[in-house]
Each structure stands twice: as structure tokens, then as C-alpha cells.
DNA sequence: CGCGGCTTTGAAGTTGATCAAGGTCGGTGG
DNA sequence: CCACCGACCTTGATCAACTTCAAAGCCGCG
């Protein structure tokens, strides 16, 4: 019986457009702060993120919020089983998107290759959501933040001098609602990681990973 | 901007076999306590649950555990994006399963109808996982348990006299690890729901829903 | 009857939430 | 260029929910 390693998401580390021979709708563009769709909207399109970052959220009646996912280049956004969107989707940066007609999901319709690509994307999504269950359910605040930073580093981290670094287009509240914490706790945890020299923080939107091994260990839950 | 209603999973409320014309492997059978696969195993097959209940779990190095899902009749079990299982899968009851070759997921291979059915199943899975994010991340202990009972009632609840009732094939620890609580808290919360006459509990494995509206309200988070 | 596994209950301990100020930074307008 | 404003972030003090630790109860089964 193994122990959970975060799935080595063979997710498109770099943006990789879906293969298709179908005539497609033209690329869509979104300004920071703009919404792509709201919860309850009819699903007309699926989108593959070409560039930029999106935020998918859900709300409870009393305002409690959960960030369901951040959408990065390569990700497919807007999957729904019943033709209704179940999240709000907002652009955090300038975003470019490739839309695909909803019918591309339906049986028979659309080209086979595209269909298979959607299934692969859905399977990757399931994998990463399973990882996140563990994060939400069983990890401490510092383990959660470490997991988040590691995940972002794997997806969109860049070499910067001696260290790798990650840009955070979302604010502390978004991170809090993704990790099921409060902004205060996220902030305190950043401070803690900074003080233990595991990371350094620039202008609150750039994190430099000074001790990657320590960060990964924390993320895995080797120690609390 | 809407507020999250748990997705009306158009999930096969009753077991609905996948349509396929393909020659299939014969149905598999599992005794209670038997494992279907372990984390790290190669994925050879996908399975549709015909009858019985499965439990999918993940572990952290220090033993912290998260129940990823319970597999009920109609559910597709064993989705993986990279051909490796990322959970342990154990039968909680006698289980019958219809296996499907992994290749049925791959592009080109297999029949189109089956392929589309898998995609639909994957999309439903994503929907229900999104619901569960909200439960794990933002709900209190009693809201979590109420959500769990409502979900089970929708899926497999039965009319029993004046009330509906739900059978729980899993134990308190499994429920705890599904909802990210401890067995003690789950037990206390059951007691609390019992004392407020929202539910009645039989032999610890049967719950009678005495006040469905109160239970649903609690699950939605109308009040804490 | 008695054993073992599961569940319940109680008391004390912790983690993270809440409440409440300040502090920082970037943009705007005088 | 500087002052101000607002949004966001940080820090501190207190609090509550849930966990942990401990012990007893229940129940099905050999």
C-alpha cells in the first residue's frame, strides 16, 4: 500500500493547444477583473486557456467562498455535466481563450481527436482535484501553502538566478479561499515560511523558493 | 451571481449500465474487505459498479488518510490520467463490477458511444468533486455530516414508512476521513443530530431522516 | 460468556478563526 | 513632486471549533 505522492500531472507543463481539425470560433480575450461566466449560466462553450490566469469560485448563501481552481494556460475551463456552469469564472490577468462549442462534448458530434483530448483533460482534472482533497482535508496551514507553492512552481515556476520563483496573480484572499484558510492565516503562514528562509517574497506577488527541498517536504507532510 | 446549490447530479440515481456494443470482459466479484487495486498499481481496467459499495482512499506518509470517494452502483471507478492508480480501492460490501479495458479511454480505440459515456461519467465526477470542495473547505462539522447524508439519500435513500432512510455501509472512521473530521467528531455530530430529532439512528448503519427540510437546510449552510 | 472491534462520551489541548488596529504600496490628482 | 486615498496585507489578542487523549459502553460473534 503506497503513500500519496502528488500526481505527477503530466499536465501540459507548457501550453499545448488541443489538436483539432474542426473549424473553431475565434480566440476570445478578457481584461483583468472581467467575468467569463457566472454560476447558473448556460454552458455554451468550453475554453482552453491560451494565456493568463482565471479564477473559478463557488459561494454559499452567507458568503462563504471556495476557490475551486485557478485556470492556467493549457487548462480546459467550463466542464459541466448538465449544461449549466456551477462556478463563477473571473480573469485575474489579461486572458486569451480558445472556445470550443459545447456540442464537442456530446456523443457522435465533433471530431474524435478533440473528443479524446477533452476526456484526457477531464481525467487530469480529476487527478489534480484528488490531490487537492488531501490538501483541503488533511493538511495543516503551512502544508497547504507549501503544497500550493510547489504546485504552482511545477506548473509555471521559472528559473531566476540561483533559485526558482513563482508569480502569484491572485491575492491573499483568493489563496485563502483556495486552501480553505483565512487571509490572516495565509499572511501569517507566508511570514513563517519567510522567517524560516524557505521562501522570500518580493512585492507580495513574487515568491522565490530558497529551500525547495524543505518546501517539498512540508508539502508532502513529512513533518508538520 | 448565484449561490452554490449542490449540483443536481443527473447521476444515474439508479444503476444504469453503460451502452456498448463492444465485447466485454466478464463481470468481476469482490468480497467485503477485498481490495480492487492499490495506489501505484498499473491501471488495467476501469470498472462500472453494478452493485455494492467501494471506498477510495489516499494516505500521507504519517498515516493521515483522506477518503476520496465512495463508489456506488452506476459509478465509474478507476479513472486515471497516466495509467497509474492514485488511490487504494476497497470493497465495503459484496461488490459486482463490470470491467472495461483501459484502452477504451484512448483516442481512436474502442467504440464512440462508450467513449462518450466515459466522458459524461468523468464530467459528473468533476461536478460532484466540486461540491465536495465546498464541503471540505467551508462547511462546519454538522453541515458536513448533513451534506453527506443528503447526498447519500439522493443517491441511494429509500422510502421506509413515513420517512426516508439511508444505509451506511462504511464505519465512522470512513465517514470522518471522507469529511475531514475525526471519528470522535463524527460520533458527536451524529448524537447532536439525533438529539435535535433531525435524524434517528438504528444499528449505527441505518439513518432515518425525520426532518428532511432541516437536514437539507443544514447541508446548504443556511444556518450553521 | 467473553473477546475484539467499533462507537460514544468526557476533559484538556491546539490550530486556525475572528475581531481589531496598523502598515504598505501603487495610483491619482493637486 | 508630493499628499492622499483605497485596496490589500500584516500583526496582535482573544476565542471557538475541532482534535487529542483517555476511558468506558455497546454489540455481534465465536
UniProtKB/TrEMBL annotation, chains A, B:
<dbReference type="Pfam" id="PF13545">
    <property type="entry name" value="HTH_Crp_2"/>
</dbReference>
<dbReference type="InterPro" id="IPR036388">
    <property type="entry name" value="WH-like_DNA-bd_sf"/>
</dbReference>
<feature type="domain" description="HTH crp-type">
    <location>
        <begin position="139"/>
        <end position="213"/>
    </location>
</feature>
<dbReference type="GO" id="GO:0003677">
    <property type="term" value="F:DNA binding"/>
</dbReference>
<dbReference type="InterPro" id="IPR036390">
    <property type="entry name" value="WH_DNA-bd_sf"/>
</dbReference>
<keyword id="KW-0804">Transcription</keyword>
<dbReference type="InterPro" id="IPR012318">
    <property type="entry name" value="HTH_CRP"/>
</dbReference>
<dbReference type="GO" id="GO:0005829">
    <property type="term" value="C:cytosol"/>
</dbReference>
<feature type="domain" description="Cyclic nucleotide-binding">
    <location>
        <begin position="27"/>
        <end position="78"/>
    </location>
</feature>
<dbReference type="InterPro" id="IPR000595">
    <property type="entry name" value="cNMP-bd_dom"/>
</dbReference>
<keyword id="KW-0805">Transcription regulation</keyword>
<dbReference type="InterPro" id="IPR014710">
    <property type="entry name" value="RmlC-like_jellyroll"/>
</dbReference>
<dbReference type="GO" id="GO:0003700">
    <property type="term" value="F:DNA-binding transcription factor activity"/>
</dbReference>
<keyword id="KW-0238">DNA-binding</keyword>
<dbReference type="InterPro" id="IPR018490">
    <property type="entry name" value="cNMP-bd_dom_sf"/>
</dbReference>
<dbReference type="Pfam" id="PF00027">
    <property type="entry name" value="cNMP_binding"/>
</dbReference>
<protein>
    <recommendedName>
        <fullName>HTH crp-type domain-containing protein</fullName>
    </recommendedName>
</protein>
<dbReference type="InterPro" id="IPR050397">
    <property type="entry name" value="Env_Response_Regulators"/>
</dbReference>
Amino acid at each position: 500500500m503506497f503513500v500519496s505522492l502528488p500526481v505527477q500531472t503530466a499536465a501540459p507543463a507548457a501550453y499545448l493547444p488541443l489538436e483539432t481539425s474542426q473549424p473553431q470560433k475565434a480566440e476570445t480575450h478578457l481584461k483583468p477583473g472581467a467575468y467569463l461566466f457566472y454560476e447558473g449560466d448556460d454552458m455554451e462553450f468550453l475554453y482552453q486557456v491560451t494565456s493568463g490566469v482565471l479564477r473559478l469560485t463557488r459561494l454559499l448563501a452567507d458568503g462563504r467562498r471556495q476557490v475551486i481552481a485557478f485556470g492556467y494556460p493549457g487548462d480546459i475551463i467550463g466542464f459541466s455535466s448538465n449544461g449549466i456552469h456551477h462556478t463563477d469564472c473571473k480573469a485575474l490577468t489579461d486572458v486569451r481563450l480558445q472556445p470550443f462549442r459545447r456540442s464537442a462534448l456530446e456523443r457522435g458530434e465533433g471530431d474524435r481527436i478533440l473528443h479524446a483530448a477533452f476526456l484526457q483533460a477531464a481525467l487530469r482534472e480529476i487527478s489534480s482535484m484528488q490531490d487537492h482533497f488531501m490538501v483541503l482535508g488533511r493538511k495543516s496551514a503551512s502544508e497547504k501553502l507549501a503544497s500550493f507553492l510547489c504546485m504552482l512552481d511545477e506548473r509555471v515556476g521559472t528559473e531566476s538566478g540561483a533559485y526558482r520563483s513563482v508569480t502569484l496573480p491572485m491575492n491573499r484572499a483568493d489563496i485563502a479561499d483556495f486552501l480553505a484558510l483565512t487571509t490572516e492565516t495565509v499572511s501569517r503562514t507566508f511570514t513563517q515560511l519567510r522567517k524560516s528562509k524557505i521562501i522570500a517574497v518580493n512585492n507580495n506577488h513574487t515568491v522565490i523558493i530558497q529551500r525547495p527541498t524543505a518546501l517539498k517536504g512540508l508539502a508532502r507532510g513529512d513533518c508538520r
